[in-house]
Amino acid sequence: MQFGMMIGFEKSIAAQVDLAQRAEAAGIDSLWMVEAQRSASVPLTAVAAATSSIGLGTYVVNAYARSPWLTGIVARDLDEVSNGRMTLGIGTGNVHMNEWHQGLDSSRPLAKMRDYIEIVKAIVSAPAGGKVRHDGPVHQSRWTATHEPVRPTIPVYMSGSGPRMISLAAEVSDGVGTGIMASPEHMRDLVRPVASAAAASVGRSASDLAFPSGAWISANENRAAARAAARFAVVGLYHPVPHPYYDRQLRQQGFAEVADMAAELMPAGRTREAMDRVPDEVVDALTVAGTPEECAARLDDYAVVADQVVALRVPQRHDSGEPSDYDALFQVAGHRR
Questions:
Q1: For residue 8, what are the CA distances in angstroms to 16, 45, 62, 231?
Q2: 308-313/2-7 β-pairing
Q3: How many Cβ atoms from other residues are within 10 Å of residue 324's Cβ?
Q4: 60, 61, 135, 314: which has the fewest C-beta neighbours closer than 10 Å?
Q5: Is the bond preceding 323 in cis, omega lying within 30 degrees of 0?
Q6: Are 91 and 71 in contact (CB under 8 A)?
C-alpha cells in the first residue's frame, strides 16, 4: 500500500513547493492537491516543476466549477509538466461551496458525472488528430487533439460517498476515491462491495480499479494531544454549518448521534462541549490518531482495503506554521517502509 498526502491549505504556494520537496525526500509516494482555499492546477504546476519523482494528483477538482473539456486539457498539460506523473481526481464538490462561493446549481450529479468522466477520459487519451465526440444529457463535446499526450492516458479517479455515486465511479472511472473519514471497515463493508458489483454489471473487473482512501492522520508524540486534535477536526466539520459530504459519512458509519450533537453545538460556538462529547469510538474508527508509531500500526488495517492511503494531516495545537509541523507525518510514512 502506498502512502500519499494531501496539500492545499498552506499559507503560500512557495510553502507548498517546499513541503512537496520535503515529502519527496522523505519517501512519500504521492502528493494530492486539495481544491478548497486555492485552485488545484496552479500550485500543482509549481510543485511539478520543483520535484522529479513523486506522484502528483488532484483530490479532487470540482466538476461543477469547470467544463469537462477544460479539465481534460489542463490534465494533459499537468501530465506534460510533470513528465507523466499526473493522476486526475474529480468530484462534485460540496453544495455549500458550489452555491455560496460560485452561485452554481449542483443538481443532476449522477447524469452530470457520467457525461463528465466519459468526456475527460476521452480527452486525456486522445492522440494527435484524435476526435472526441460526446452527446450526453448534460454535457456535449466536439474536440480534436492537436498534439500527442505524454503517455497513452492519464488515470482518472472519481470521488463517491453514497452507493449510487460509488457505483457510477466504478462503472466509468479508473479509481473510486473516498473522503477523509472512510474507515477501513467502511471501505470493506460498503465501498468495495458496491464498486465491485457495479464494475461487474458493465463487464469490468474490480481488480482494474484503484481504491485510494482518504485518511485524517493526527500524529503527535503526545498521544493525548493527538487525539484531542482529532476530536477538534471532527466537530470542526460542523462549523459554521455541517459539511454535507462528511455529515453523510459520519451517519453512514453508524454515528448519527454524534452528527446530530455536532450539528447542534458547533454552529452555536460550543466547541469544547462538542469535543468532549466525541467518543473514543469515533476517534478510533474515523481518524488515525496517536503517536507516529501508533498511527503507522493503524494503517495496517487500510492495507487490505486500499491501494493507497491519502493522508490529510490534522493540525496540532502547538503548530509553529513551519515545515517542521509535518515531521510527525513523515515519521508515520517512515514507519510504514
A1: 7, 13, 14, 21
A2: parallel
A3: 11
A4: 135
A5: no
A6: no
CB-hemisphere CA count at 13 Å for 186?
A: 28
Query: What's the number of CA atoms in the CB half-sphere (13 Å) around residue 322?
Result: 4
Determine if the pTM surpasses 0.70: yes
Instruction: Go through 231-241 and write b for each residue having 16 or more CB atoms within 10 A of its CB, e for each that does not.
Output: bbbbbbbbbee
Of residues 94, 98, 91, the one with CA closest to residue 168: 91
How distant, in Å, are the alpha carbons of 61, 115, 134, 144 from that of 137? 22, 8, 10, 21
Question: Number of C-alpha atoms within 13 angstroms, CB side, residue 125?
Answer: 11
HEC assignment per residue over the chain: CEEEEEECCCCCHHHHHHHHHHHHHCCCCEEEECCCCCCCHHHHHHHHHHCCCCEEEECCEEHHHCCHHHHHHHHHHHHHHCCCCEEEEEECCCHHHHHHHCCCCCCCHHHHHHHHHHHHHHHHCCCCCCEEEEECCCCEEEEECCCCCCCCCCCEEEECCCHHHHHHHHHHCCEEEECCCCCHHHHHHHHHHHHHHHHHHCCCCHHHCECEEEEEEEECCCHHHHHHHHHHHHHHCCCCCCCHHHHHHHHHCCCHHHHHHHHHHCCCCCHHHHHHCCCHHHHHHHCEEECHHHHHHHHHHCCCCCCEEEEEECCCCCCCCCHHHHHHHHHHHHHHC
Single-letter code of the amino acid located at 93: G
Q: Where is pLDDT greater, at 185 or 105?
A: 185
Q: Who's near 226: CB < 8 A, 6+ residues apart?
A: 218, 219, 220, 289, 290, 291, 295, 314, 316
User: Cell numbers at residue 196, please?
Assistant: 465491485
User: pLDDT digits over 213-258, tens only?
Assistant: 999 999 999 999 999 999 999 999 999 999 988 999 999 999 999 9
